[in-house]
Automatic annotation (TrEMBL):
Residues 23-136 form the SusE outer membrane protein domain. It holds the Pfam family SusE. Residues 1-19 form the signal peptide. The keyword Signal applies. It comes from Hymenobacter artigasi. Keywords: Signal. InterPro entries: SusE (IPR025970). This is SusE outer membrane protein domain-containing protein.
């Protein structure tokens, strides 16, 4: 009986090993058509929060197709691309907020805001020029490490990430911008301004039309600011419920709004509008 049991176990082990070997032989392997090569439109970038919507740098790379081999291979896998940022050429071990998705395209224009977010996510030194590295990855499934380009160095001056001092939001409203809010989703927000840590004010760089404008808090008229229309480039004081502010020459302007107080306790502010 003992011998029969031993023989049965031996046969079972052999069959299991054979199945394992066969599975390894049949497993599909992935082969890229070419090595990835990354090129940037600039190798030195200075980032400023006021320029958040603008282009910081554009990266391009060659397309890569993948072929499968092995008896389990069916069809070539779908490929997408990621740009990955690191402080060192060999520092791509952690990948999280420092990934900039590029979809299936072979080019990606990165805004000032998106690049700065990725750099802050890896703890880059801000306020002075430092070296960072970018690479592109061809991603299949969840694998964002295997098929990557050589890192490309660039010099960047980033600004520190920060949060506004309170939860208030402010928007520029009126025909000088996107029109008076009508209660519909398309116009309710007006031109939303962002908190600028360096200036300690809400700012926006945008095209303005000839016409009136005001500033309102939290998508409502309960707290709004207006004031004089003359001398905007030098700064004018604003008061709660103040007069419409008129833009007399259409153009692209930087609008800076410093607010005194918060919530329902806003007492005024200072507005500067410069080309």
């Amino acid at each position: 009986m003992k011998n029969l049991l031993t023989q049965a176990l031996a046969v079972a082990f052999a069959l299991t090993a054979l199945a394992s070997c066969k599975k390894d032989e049949d497993k599909a392997t992935v082969q890229p058509s070419a090595a990835l090569t990354l090129t940037g439109s600039a190798n030195s970038v200075v980032l400023a929060q006021i320029n958040d919507p603008q282009t910081a740098v554009t990266y391009t790379w060659n397309p890569v197709q993948f072929s499968l081999s092995g008896t389990e291979a069916t069809k070539a896998p779908a490929v997408s691309y990621q740009l990955q940022v690191a402080k060192k050429a060999d520092g791509f071990g952690y990948l999280g907020p420092n990934i900039i998705d590029a979809g299936t395209s072979t080019t990606k224009t990165i805004t000032v805001e998106d690049l700065n977010k990725a750099l802050n996510a890896i703890g880059i030194t801000t306020g002075s020029p430092v070296q960072a590295f970018m690479r592109v990855a061809a991603v299949i499934g969840d694998d964002n490490h295997t098929f990557v380009s050589a890192p490309v160095a660039f010099t960047v001056t980033a600004y520190p990430a920060c949060l506004p001092p309170n939860t208030d939001t402010w928007a520029l409203v009126g025909p000088a911008g996107a029109g008076w809010p009508s209660g519909t989703p398309a116009t309710e927000d007006g031109l939303t301004m962002k908190w600028n840590c360096a200036l300690k004010a809400y700012t926006i760089r945008t095209a303005l039309n000839v016409g009136p404008m005001k500033f309102r808090q939290n998508k409502a008229w309960a707290v709004n600011l207006g004031g004089p229309s003359a001398g905007l480039a030098n700064g004018v004081p604003l008061t709660p419920g103040g007069a419409d502010i008129n833009i007399t020459t259409a153009g692209t302007y930087t609008v800076k709004l410093a607010v005194d107080g918060s919530g329902t306790a806003v007492t005024g502010g200072m507005l500067t509008v410069t080309p």
